[in-house]
Amino acid sequence: MKKKVLLLTTIYPAPDLKYGTPSVHYFTKEWVKMGYEVRVIHYQAVYPKILYFFASIFRDKIASLTGAVVFTKPDKEDKRYQMDNVTVLRFPIFKWIPHRKFTNKIIKSNIKKIIKINLEDDFNPNIIIGHFSNPQLEIVSQLKHIYQARTCMIMHDIGVSIKKVYKKKYKMLMNNIDVWGYRSKPIKNGFEKEFGKQKESFFCYSGIPDNYILESSTKSFKGNLSKFVYVGELIKRKHAISIIPAINSVYKDKKFHISFVGKGNEINKMKALSLSLKLNDNISFLGHIPRNEILNILDESECMIMISKNETFGLVYLEAMGRGCITIGSKNQGIDGVIIDGINGFLCNEGDQEDLQQIIKHINSLSSAERQKISQKAIDTVKKLTDFEAAKKYIIEVDKKCNLND
Asked: How many Å separate Cα 136 from the centre of its chain?
């Protein structure tokens, strides 16, 4: 008999949604291939109408500052669809104020809804997983007793909102979680500093398609690095603009080129800076490019830089590493722990131009052979983080630690 997984999340992709990171779906679709029956409850928060009015006016500014998805109209109806044989149920769920607690009435009604639909479909989960703590921590905690299932909570942040949202209830709710997953090493460290070490836990890293990963490095790295690339949103917290003066200060002879892949509100500032530094021939703004086509740009590049703030993980780091790029990420952010500084890439203080300058100078001081070794180490690291391997490790950790293999 197939084991059944019920996963609840506030972020999930859909054919009719313009926004929504697919990272959680990368796990669930692989679990289906592994023989699990998977059902996703996607909660789409709905707010008072007045907030959508302001969101429509300030959407670009909010998105630029935070990188958050900002919806300008509410989702009004329950929806059900299939993606890669994963059953997804999307429920609008109302709350008065963003980032605050959902009312007890709303929580109770949604738990009843889940029970009713599961009963109609004869779906009795063995494992219940929550991604993002609000409202998942409370709902998963209550469903645990209804289904006598084992539970897992995946943290995408250090959990500072848990005490604020759940107040006196948070310890009781946390005690109903059997195993905790952390999306990065810094998240684990921050969470354990706030709540103590949990009895059972694991790192819940994302993966990339195995065909994105080279077998071995093809880059020669002769002479100084000269071909740089940034892939991501051009928004304030990503610090993409910091890359321009940092590289320019290293290369007085202007023998470099930077390709920026992505779009966002910072692009006009970046273009103005490029013009003022007379770097129009050195910088390309390529806009949005489909994920599979980015591989060609990575293959033509030597170094990928993204020194952003509040980066939970960042699949583009893995994609760059998988193509043999020397990859520079942010210290104490999501990729820290996957990138080991000086071994398979480099770590820079977020948005720190001077630190980035010194890292590039250090890389240029290395021999071609030393850089090729770092490039190959990056590829070897990512070989263990394919979509399948990441999803397999995730579900096996939960399955094993939930004693479901006995």
From this structure: 18
